[in-house]
Structure formats: C-alpha cells, structure tokens
Amino acid sequence: MTDNIRKQRSTLKCVDVKRRTAVAWSFCDAKQRPVDLIRSCNNDPCPPDWDVGEMSLCSHTCGGGVRSRKVRCIRRISKTGGAESTLILPDGQCPQPKPVNSEACGLIDCPAMWKTSNWGQCSTTCGPGEQRREVTCEQRLANGELKQFYPPIQCRHIEKPPSVQLCDL
Question: Which GO terms fall under molecular function for this chain's record (predicted)?
Fold first, then answer.
C-alpha cells in the first residue's frame, strides 16, 4: 500500500499568444511570472487493509501438520514505512474478508518405523539382570491417525531396535 499524501505543482510556461505555442522564458517578462503553486492533495487517510505475513514451515512433513502466518488489520498513517507508520486495528475494521492465517500441510503418510518405549527397571536389585521395553512398528497416516502393524511386516526393511538389554546393579 502506498501513502496517500501527495503534492500538486503548477506547471508554468511562457506562451506566444498569437501562435498559441510555448516559447523560451527569455521572451516573457520575468517580473510578470507568477510564483509556482504547490498544494497538497489526496489527504484522506488510507483505508484499513490486511497486513499478511509469510507462511511458516509445516509443523510436520508427513502425517498431517499445520503452517501459519500473522494476519493483522492495519491502517498506514505515514510514508516512512517503519513500525510507527501503521496502526494495528481490530479485525472488524478491515472491510475485506480476513485472509486465512493457518492451513493444513504435510498431508501424506509417513513411512512405517520402529517406535520404542522407555526401558523398564532392571529385573534384579543386585547383580546382573535385564531391562525390557516395547518395540512396535508404527506409521502415522496423512490424517494424523497412528497405525500399528502386527506382525510388523511394514518395518521389515529397517533394523529392529533391541527390546532387551543387560543391566548390572
């Protein structure tokens, strides 16, 4: 949006009245030359408008995510362009419909992968023992739903993390 405050300047010419054409200023009496007129025009304030920022990156590349941006109703009050040159207004003061400030993204299925839980406690309180955890094959779908596979054939191409480890207290 551009600043609405403008200036009009009069254009003066030396004119040969008989031929009705412009001639050099040397043919006119300099004492009779009127002063240049400058007046302001288009002094009405700019109407409110939407200031729309850039969309953020998607929160998830797969399995459903969201990206967002800042959308504000503003009125420009100065041509300097800095933060002090705009007023932030309530959304209801902008005449046009508000642009969307968020949208869905990453709407593809994620690849299946192994998901591990935390290690459990050691099976003994003294000496060697073992710890266990759950290892499941999961896939987050484009709609955000989590799907588990049993048997885990979708994860067969990925090395399975261990579900048991030794511990020694």
Answer: metalloendopeptidase activity
**Assessment of whether the complete model's pTM goes beyond 0.70:** no
42 CB-near residues (< 8 Å, 6+ apart): 4, 5, 6
| Distance set, CA 35 to CA 44, 68, 81 (Å) | 27, 56, 33
* In contact, 168 and 124? CB cutoff 8 Å: no
Q: Find how far residue 150's CA is from the centre of its chain.
A: 41
Where are the strands (E) in the chain, listed by range? 6-9, 14-16, 21-23, 38-41, 49-52, 65-68, 71-76, 86-89, 102-105, 113-116, 128-132, 135-140, 146-149, 164-168
Smallest Cα–Cα separation from 157: which of 123, 113, 120? 113
**Of 34, 16, 18, residue with least CA distance to 26:** 16
3-state secondary structure of 36: coil
φ and ψ at residue 4, rounded to 5 degrees: -85, -10
pLDDT digits (tens, 9 = 90+) for 112-164: 999 999 999 999 999 899 999 999 999 999 999 999 999 999 999 999 999 99
pLDDT digits (tens, 9 = 90+) for 110-124: 999 999 999 999 999
- Beta carbons of 123 and 107 less than 8 angstroms apart: no
